[in-house]
Amino acid sequence: MKKQIVAALAGIVVVGVAGWYFLKAENPVAEANAPTKTPVATVTTVSAKQMNVPIRLDANGYVSSLNSVEIRPQVTNVVAKVHIKEGQFVKAGDLLFSLDDRADRVNLQMAQAQLAKDQAGLADLERQLARSKELLAKGFIAQSATDTVQTQVEAQRAALQADKAAVEAARVALGYDSIRATSAGRAGVIAVFPGSLVQPTATAVPLVTISQLDPIAVTFTLPETELNALLAAQKTGDVKVHAKVQGAQSQLEGKLSFIDNTVDTQNGTIKVKAIFPNAEHLLWPGQYVAVNTVVRELGNAIVIPQSAIITGIDAKSVYTVGADQTAQPRRVELLYSFATQAAVKGIQAGERVVVDGKQNLRPGTKVREAEASNNGNDRGNDIGAKGTQKSAS
């Protein structure tokens, strides 16, 4: 009896399985059209923001002194005394070197003595002329005698002028024996010592070089495409330039002072110069520094994080999330990048762009936004924008 029941159950199972295979074979289209569950991707998004974006130009510049003077003698002489030390700061008019002035002092004394002699001679001739005029008036002498004395007086006066010029020339020659600073600055290497013979030749080594350090200049180049913006900014007011120097707590701030009158045709750049206050001597002649300046801005630009941009072979794109919570690719044009942000063209302010999770997306993919991460990205976007505005101020 039991064997019959088991055999009946087995027959029922066989018939059921055969029927299932029959129905599957008869309706393959229904199985293919059966709905499948679409996966949902988890992403973080950021809202695109609209703001004015300053265009910061970065460059490398070199520091140079505004006034660097090579001190050279104007006469051939021997150094008697050196009054400064290497690296000393001097003011305009400070005595730097004294040359042997004994011969020049004697020449000055001789010129002064000749001047005094001719002054006495002139006084005597003027008295003779006065007496001659009195005698001429009384008819005791001829007019020619008076004229002769008058000529002698005029000649003596001319000689007196020559004597005065000789005295001034002797004073000038004596002044060359005292070499003074023509401008304020820092003294460099001193090339002479007491007893050294110096000569006023262009090939001779300068006695010392005085370089002005405060204020100081930084020269750098910018692309010629920014020339019009540079000129326009300079007309409207002071163009601020910032320099980053190692050891300084913050960037140093200067002002644009010069734009060259010629564009370099070889590399397409324009040379510019900025003046920096340098009381702490953080900038040094010959030093290379990184500088930046802002001469224009993108008005009402759309700003998104750079991490949201997908770089393709021939284009850049982002994924945006619509109201139906589906992701769609959008082609964008990168206008300018700064810090972690980027100004783009191709989307509107307020649109949500995907920052994290882009690798799992396809056009039309359903997405679920991670709120905590999204808030963090919004804060990063705000901070990046504020930091850029601050650097432009």
Strands, total number: 21
Order of helices and strands: HHEEEEEEHHEEEEEHEEEEEEEEEEH
- By helix and strand content, what is the structural category? alpha+beta
> Strand share of the residues?
35-45%
Q: What is the name of the CATH class of the largest domain?
A: Mainly Beta
- In round numbers, the mean pLDDT is 84
Individual helix count = 6
Q: Assign the CATH architecture of the largest domain.
A: Beta Barrel
- Radius of gyration from the CA trace? 46 Å
Organism: Noviherbaspirillum cavernae
GO cellular component, one term: efflux pump complex
Coiled coil: 108-135
Subcellular location: Cell membrane
Describe the structure concisely:
The protein is α+β, with helices and mostly antiparallel strands.
List the helices and strands and how they pair.
Layout: H1 2-26, H2 28-32, E1 41-47, E2 49-65, E3 68-71, E4 77-82, E5 89-90, E6 95-99, H3 102-138, H4 143-175, E7 178-180, E8 185-187, E9 197-198, E10 208-211, E11 216-223, H5 227-236, E12 240-244, E13 252-264, E14 269-276, E15 288-305, E16 310-311, E17 316-321, E18 326-338, E19 341-345, E20 352-356, E21 365-369, H6 371-392
Parallel strand pairs: 1-21
Antiparallel strand pairs: 1-20, 2-11, 2-15, 3-10, 4-6, 4-9, 5-8, 6-7, 8-10, 11-14, 12-13, 12-15, 13-14, 15-19, 16-17, 17-18, 17-20, 18-19, 18-21
Helix pairs in contact: 3-4
